[in-house]
Design goal:
With 445 residues, the protein is mainly α. The chain is built from 15 helices and 4 strands. The protein has 2 domains: 236 residues, MFS general substrate transporter like domains (Growth Hormone, Chain: A), CATH 1.20.1250; 207 residues, MFS general substrate transporter like domains (Growth Hormone, Chain: A), CATH 1.20.1250.20. Helix 2 packs parallel to helix 6, helix 4 crosses helix 7 and helix 5 packs across helix 15. InterPro entries: MFS, MFS_dom, MFS_trans_sf, Sugar_transporter_CS.
Amino acid sequence: MDKPLDIASLIDREPLRLYQWGIFLLCFVTAVFDGFDTQAIAFTGPAIVAAFGLHAGDLAPILIAGTLGMTIGAMTLGLVGDRIGRRPALLAGIAVFSIASLLTAWAGNTVQILILRFIAGLGMGGCTPVLLALAAEYGSAQRRGAIMTGVLLGLPAGAMLGGLLAARMMPVIGWQGVFVVGGAAPLLFLVVLYFALPESLQYLASRSDHASTRRVSKTLRRIVTVALPADATFKVAGKATRASVTALFANGNARNTVAIWAVYLCNWVAWFMFLSWLPTVLKAAGLPVAQAPMGTVIVNAVFIVCAIPLSLLLPKVNTRRLLMVLLGLGIAIAVGLAYAGTTWGLVFALAGAAGLGIGGQQIALNYLVVGAYPTTLRATATGWAIGMGRVGAIAGSAVGGTVLAQGGPSGFYLALAVPLAAAMFAVMAIRTTGRVADGELVVAH
């Protein structure tokens, strides 16, 4: 056959098959385990402080070590996924965070916990961009936003599952038991993934060797109804580019890359400053300590509820304008919280709305990044963008306590508006038409 077949076009013409739903489910469950282990240290933190006779502030280096590991993991494992394949990169990431989490249960001191949390972070942070790239490439362009969002929701779902386990079971199994569950369960699931998870079709097609072409053809026959010639060859949309960080700044990508990184950085400063310190802020404002964690639960719940409708909206709107609206909403919420005082009904309503106004940008940004780069750069671009977000997460988590101490609850909430405003200016620098064409989001250079 002379003319190569375009994989994305073939998938776009078909409804989603059971085979594809199976892949999305595998990615979602992986994200659940990732989210569980990511938040495990937060749930077990008070017990660890008590077990080792620490002060509450002594837990900060352990929290930062995990986030630093996730930052490096997101930046490196995405690149590995573009170089050697999504499947081996994902399996390696899961093995790393599972084993490190399991070993944490037998840590004898806080130095060992810090080191293991950094190692676990490498795997946890690295899995996210690879998961998103793999799931996106098995879905059609029209459903890509919803697919990516559905997979991404595994992270807060895992966090909520971990919170429930910690609240109900930690008195019985101890803080060590949480890490045993968080390590052993994904290790068992890794066996399932080894046999059930396929490689990215676009990645295989980019290799252009006979064995990879046969694997693409075999897999596509489980997705498409059109008859594929025995000698079919395949292509992927976009210019073939070797995966590297420098490639993110080549071919007219530089402006958008810098702008997208800035949005991730600033938005995650606000998001993680808000999430990490909200229970403490609510307690400082006068809410009983037993009720303070409910703020975080409400924020995550609203994020999950809003995420799917938002993802369905993404292919139909200008993503840049949507980001501007969400950031404006986030600023308004921050100001509202600053003046809500102890009217707890209003405080919780606004805190819940922050799940969309401060957290919803992540959904739109992930969709934007996947569509803005060719498949050979997709996991790299996603990984580095998320990595920049992780840097913001470290900064937001680190400065939140200082801001609260100096400005009180009102000053804390008002401070959230600063990085959100900076993110809004960065969005203005992104050049995009905000439409989908030939399976890709068209981003102007």
